[in-house]
Amino acid sequence: MAIDLKFLDYLEDFLTENRKERFLEVLANRTNHFTIAMEDVYQLHNTSAVMRSCEVFGIQELNVVEQKFGKRIDTEIAMGAQKWVDINRFDSMQNCIDNVRAKGYQIIATTPHNDSCMLHEFDITKPSAIFFGTEKQGLSQEVIEQADGFLKIPMVGFTESLNISVSAAIIIQDITSRLRQSNINWKLNDEEILKKRLTWTKNSIKDIKRIEERYYASL
């Protein structure tokens, strides 16, 4: 869908110059080269914490599978991240897998088992959807069987696994940091930036529905 640039200009007049400049600064570091997927995470604070990590480290899209447990965003943990990250919700894992594959992502399952690739050895050149499983059981067999690769965090202690939100934060920070130091074309394109400017501007304006109605009534 084409962006109405006049409408965007109209809405941005409601923002301060600092706010508009901040949007551009943040968008310059956003990426769709990676996306994150979470499978039926029961603890709400973990979903919200992963969302916050996506926002902080610049991943624009988070996919949440709600096959078993309904979700709501824990706003205290998310700290407003839900305003800036795109949340894609799916009612089955297969729908999520099919969706990210259609967008050109390879499926990467995070698991401490199998012949998983160590985090520091992970090839960041390919667009990847990183899948995280439930707190107790990890990823389902459905994801494991369809994964294009496996990824794990090196550990040297007795404990075999980390909390999902901690694992996600470590992996997201590592791959996005390496991505920004690479020559890969990882940034949002011009159209994606315009769409985010419009969405973020709307999310920043109180009584946006009334303002939109007033704009279109004046045409």
Task: Provide the fold topology.
Elements: H1 5-12, H2 17-27, E1 34-39, H3 44-57, E2 61-65, H4 75-78, E3 86-90, H5 93-102, E4 106-110, E5 117-118, E6 128-132, H6 141-146, E7 149-152, H7 164-180, H8 190-204, H9 208-217
Parallel strand pairs: 1-2, 1-6, 2-3, 4-6, 4-7, 5-7
Helix pairs in contact: 2-8, 3-7
Low-confidence stretches: 73-79
Number of helices: 9
Mean pLDDT: 88
Question: How much beta, percentage-wise?
Answer: 5-15%
Total beta strands: 7
Structural class: alpha/beta
List the main descriptive attributes of the protein structure presented here:
elongated; alpha/beta; transferase; methyltransferase activity; EC 2.1.1.34; 219 residues; seven-stranded parallel sheet
Please tell me about this protein's structure.
The chain is of the alpha/beta class. The chain has helices at 5-12, 17-27, 44-57, 75-78, 93-102, 141-146, 164-180, 190-204, 208-217, and strands at 34-39, 61-65, 86-90, 106-110, 117-118, 128-132, 149-152. It has a 7-stranded parallel β-sheet, with helices on both faces. Helix 4 (75-78) links the parallel strand 2 and strand 3 (86-90). The longest helix is centred in the C-terminal third of the chain and has 17 residues, at 164-180. The radius of gyration is 19 Å and the shape is elongated. The protein starts with a helix and ends with a helix. InterPro entries: Alpha/beta_knot_MTases, SpoU_MeTrfase, TrmH, tRNA_m1G_MTases_N. Pfam families: SpoU_methylase. S-adenosyl-L-methionine binds at residues 110, 153, 162. Belongs to the class IV-like SAM-binding methyltransferase superfamily. RNA methyltransferase TrmH family.
